[in-house]
Design brief:
With about 160 residues, this protein is an alpha+beta fold. The chain has three helices and twelve strands, in the order E-E-E-E-E-E-E-E-E-H-E-H-E-H-E. The strands form four sheets. The protein has a four-stranded mixed sheet, with helices on one face. It has a three-stranded antiparallel sheet with strand order 1-6-5, with no helix packed on it. Strand 11, helix 3 and strand 12 form a beta-alpha-beta unit. It starts with a strand and ends in a 9-residue tail after the last strand.
Length: about 160
């Protein structure tokens, strides 16, 4: 669990999440639409920080990228939750898992461990995918910073429904 980067404190202990374009107003003890950002006593926390629900090695073309590192593989990671609830989502079991107010599933994994897995498997990139990466942006940012120092590329597979912030 980690305090989120993008939120605004409102009257009382209500907060407004500024991570995606829903701009959820979240009351104490409640979560936003994504199911993973919770107001705890006037502070907004990412309950899914470091809780990896999926970790796979995929062809980069699955992202779908064609001219970026062609014919290589990428370490693909995700946490539970999503800011959409698409009827035909192929990953609905993990994207909708924490809704409403359900436990946050996943294996505690430090950012450095993700980088180490990519390096141990001689992978040139890490992909943030399967669920919307914006909902685990604090964790992804920590992984990306470490990955960059080791020469790894970072790939976002996103629905693009982010906030302007």
């Amino acid at each position: 669990m980690e305090e989120v980067l993008l939120y605004q404190k409102l009257d009382g202990k209500k907060v407004r999440c500024q991570n995606c374009a829903h701009y959820c107003n979240v009351l104490p003890g409640k979560r936003g639409i994504c199911g993973v950002r919770e107001n705890m006593d006037g502070k907004l926390y990412a309950l899914n920080y470091g809780k990896i629900i999926a970790c796979q090695i995929d062809p980069i073309e699955k992202k779908p990228l064609y001219h970026f590192l062609p014919h290589t593989y990428s370490l693909s990671i995700a946490t539970v939750g999503c800011n959409f609830a698409c009827q035909n989502c192929q990953n609905w079991q993990i994207s909708q898992a924490p809704k409403p107010q359900k436990p946050i599933l996943g294996k505690e994994t430090a950012p450095q461990a993700i980088v180490d897995i990519a390096l141990q498997n001689s992978l040139p990139s890490i992909s943030y995918t399967y669920t919307e990466p914006a909902i685990f942006s604090e964790y992804a940012l920590d992984v990306m910073k470490l990955a960059g120092t080791r020469g790894l590329k970072n790939v976002w597979v996103s629905n693009g429904f982010w906030s302007k912030e």
